[in-house]
Amino acid sequence: MNRYKNYKGKKVCFLIANIIIGTFLFAVRAQEVSKNSTPQLSEYNVIEVIASMTLEEKASIVIGGGRMVGEEFENGMIGEMDGIVPGAAGSINSIPHLGIPITILADGPTGVRIHPIRNNDSTKTYYGTSFPVPTMMASSWDVNLMQEVGTALGSEFKHYGVDVALAPAFNIIRNPLNGRNGEYYSEDPYLSGKLAASMVHGIQSTGVGATVKHFVANNQETNRRKVDAVISERALREIYLKTFRIAIKESNPWAVMTAYNKVNGVYTPESYDLNTKILREDWGYNGFVMTDWRAGKDIIAQLKAGNDLIEPGFEKQKAEVVEAVKSGELDEEILNQNVERILKGITKTLRFNGYKNDDNPDLEAHAKLCKRAAEESIVLLKNNTQTLPLQKGKKIALFGNTSYDTFINNNGSSDVSFAYNISIYEGLVNSGFTVHQELKAEYDTYIENDRIAFPAKNSFGKVRLRPEFIAPKELIEKCALETDVAIVSIGRNSGEAADRELEGDYKLTEAELSQLKNITNIFHQQGKKVIFLMNVGGVIETASWKDLPDAILMVWQPGQEGGNAIANVISGKVNPSGKLPVTFPVKYEDVASSKNFPGTPARRPKQVIHEEGIYVGYRYFNSFNVKPSYEFGYGLSYTNFEYSALKLSKSKFKDSIDLEFTITNIGEKAGREVAQLYLSTPSGKLDKPSEELRKFAKTRLLQPGEKQIVKFTLNKMDLASFDSQNSQWIAESGEYKVNIGASSMDFRLSEIFKVKKEIEVEKVNKVLEPLIEIEELTR
Ligand code: BGC
Hints:
Number of helices: 23
Shape: globular
CATH class of the largest domain: Alpha Beta
Largest sheet: 6 strands, mixed
Bound molecules: beta-D-glucopyranose
Oligomer: single chain
């Protein structure tokens, strides 16, 4: 039955009935119907509107209204929406006579990406707040903070007239070299999915739609537009899809963006399995799906797969859609469905509902939140003999290029046009520390000369890392005499469209290493301490140098207020409470995916076989007893926490189990702790990781001596693993061990419960089978 045509049929019956009632009534009704013959879109008449649309109009809804302003890599900004929101990434076309306004789409995950200056008029600016990179925010392990940041982000989109945010991005961090890792949250699907859900809740609470991306397995940038991610059904369900499943089910984002890559032989936007069978049938998703920008090959296949919107959209693609319907290649019913999902999304937008944006977001309030988000997310990795916090007024010798020119965000489409940013140097000065000026002057000159010699390019592709300034030995010695402590920043940046190199990026250069050694030796000889700051967007090698300094802070790429936040942690105004959302291996080769990254053939990989299967991140390190440099979930505090009194509501699981335990601050400073629950599940027919994160909670700020009871409920899905043979989630019978820990390797409490008989938790579609056999890792 054709719902869209049938609507017209019903309308005719309605008319006939009215004729019978009488001439007068007929006249009135007929008049109404003729008025309604060009219906105006409302949330109640989407089907009627579609019934009145021409084929060309339908095509103009599914093909985005973006306009390329040059090649992505040359220009940085694409899809400029002149006259409305310049610099926005894309749009959905308007059809004014049907009451359909334009819908504006803009990036991205750390802030609004639009042109900050318009028509060369600097009297009015359109800056966005540049929040910490997502991996950093994930280090907060704080769902409430994520929601607050989402709300602030949403409000900036709203004030600047953006209807749908192209955020959050939360592909799984499979390998440290993915250039885009900073844009993503974690190697663990549960942590990542929960944080993404909070971000979506926040954004959508403002009336702006969120887009979860990139669906799915966009785990690398090398040949990202063509590479085929070959992944087992189980690893897809338990790792790569799971993070989306959680976020989508818990937060119902307006839109999903498919990825550039293929999964098991099919481009993600062209995959019916992915966009219809999994997303709509298995998960019940009812929003619309859009492509990533210029993704895939065959737009008709994309529409048929359930990928409703093609972005950024080209004129010729509209004709292609019209032609495909006329030739019978594309059933108009399918096109109608695509249009219906998009129109339903449009009826929710602020613009559709008459909101007039004022270009005036509360940037001051958001800057404060940006600082707090960074403070809550800095991770203290090492702190021998209470090196940190540093007393105010201390004299600091500040080394490292990025102490003065701090990396605050990634490159690529998540780069934000911010009004200002606070470097580490500025933050320390703002906080009342004294910084050695002669040393600073040397760095300033070096950085300025380098800037002139290598002017900054656009923000896509390989990032040029400025070689580290090597301070002469005499200067280091002078600083060691004239200051109290050395702080040294190690800086790395990367982003969209290029993965990172092992040498000189993931690993420090020889010059960097020898400078770190020199500084440490010279300062230690003077009995002075040394603190390293890691100003990075992703995992780097740490094992070869982490013994050198007295303290290490992972400060990530901390957003525009980063310097102030870092200084507040250094001074002890803020007690660090972040924990790592990714594993730092001893050697790159210790990462299970290192054998298969970025795929084969090496230069332009056609396929990347995920042979590590479900053993991503700590699932591998823990299960195969490989000691990392810093484990997943790790992070110190200026205080200490005690875990006690774990109680389970029962010892035999039926539908759920409640549990609780107590965290006590047994140190001398107020602080927050992130408690983590790792479940060890019995291996029956399925191979299992030794433990997996199933719950986490961050305490409130606990004063010394203060306690907080943490409560969790484990349900069936929390126990389940994916049985590919039968395409279902099952909880196998046997003994389950609840481990409560301060990290994935620091368990403090444990208890056991039993499942008597295997539980069939959820049956799903048999889809996305790999086309080739994968030699998958098992224990
Ligand atoms: C990125 C997306 C982004 C889009 C629009 C693409 O290159 O992969 O994440 O939303 O551009 O700017």
